[in-house]
Amino acid sequence: MKEQQYIIKNPKCFNLKDIFTCGQCFRWEENEDKSYTGIVKENVINIKKQGNDYVIKSVGNDEIEKLVIDYFDLNRDYKALQEKLSKIDENMEKSIKYGQGIRLLNQDLWETLISFIISANNNIPRIQKIIKRLSKNFGKKIIFENNEYYTFPTAQELKDVSIEKYRELGLGFRDKRIYETTQIILENKVNLQELENNPNTLEVREILLTLPGVGPKVADCILLFSDLKRLEVFPIDVWVNRVMNELYIHGDENKISKKQIEQIAKEKFGNLAGLAQQYLFYWRRDS
DNA sequence: ACTCAGGTATTAC
DNA sequence: GTAATACCTGAG
User: Fold this and answer.
1) Measured between alpha carbons, how far is A218 from A208 in angstroms, rounded to an integer?
2) How far apart are CA A178 and CA A120, in angstroms?
3) Is the CB of A177 under 7 A from strand C?
4) Considering the entire predicted model, what is its pTM?
């Protein structure tokens, strides 16, 4: 474990609140000084805005510069993507203006998989609490500025955790799904590394769908928010369902099939559908 | 007491 | 293939 520091100099399209509250991650907490602290892989990271720059302090074994550039997707030109999407229509223009600072994080695939299985029919505060409890019970402790943090448990670390134990920790009906998915990964029936190397998004999606607890919405969130980083998928949750009906269909949201929404998204946003989804979701939910 | 929340699995047409 | 229903939990 080593302490490191790194400064992101004057990044464009980069705002901490947008990044951490737009719904893609569950483990970042805001501090009194407006900085945020979170756990990335096996590193604790604190990030604070200072003028136009962002000062990052970390404790962990990974090399911080590389980690940060990858995690915050710093090599992608969001400005260019925003300009492209803004030209599509005024809805895009408006929602992008609202969520200018969003970046799609490259999160650990395993953590994203389990986190979004937990997210099913759940609310955000509870999802966050459950993940925190899992980490505290089965992850590794890291001390950062005199506080304790816990890494997200690996599949191996969850190997012998029983369904009953999950139920004790408040996972509810998701207990069985987490247990079974963990075993499938451990038995290598689904190989996460292979998924990362597979460029065929539809194929990867099909494989994800075989995992207990992973349906269409969760699969798409994993594809978009993990280091799989497939920007063309379009996760449809209640909010996206709502906003798409209001903006593009003008119908009863209960009677429009998700297939239709998917098709409209594909036609309008093409291979940037996932990014468009994130702007629309964040704007509709929070503004 | 009752509804709702980043859906999925199961069962029945 | 598409529709209806149950499902842990805890906050409002």
Assistant:
1) 9
2) 12
3) no
4) 0.97
Its sign, for the CA torsion A172, A25, A278, A206, is negative
Q: How large is the angle between the packed helices A216-225 and A109-118, nearest 10 degrees?
A: 150
Q: Is the CB of A121 under 7 A from strand C?
A: yes
SS (H, E, C) A193-228: HHHHHCCCHHHHHHHHHCCCCCCHHHHHHHHHHECC
Distance A7 CA to B8 C1' (A): 42
For chain A, domains (ranges, CATH) are 2-75 (3.30.310.260), 109-225 (1.10.340.30), 238-286 (1.10.1670.10)
Q: Does any strand C atom come closer than 7 Å to the Cβ of A9? A: no
A122 touches strand C (CB under 7 A): yes
For residue range A37-77, what is the model confidence (pLDDT) as tens digits? 999 999 999 999 999 999 999 999 999 999 999 999 999 99
Instruction: Please report, rounded to whole angstroms, the spatial distance between the CA atom of protein residue A176 and the C1' atom of nucleotide C10.
Output: 20
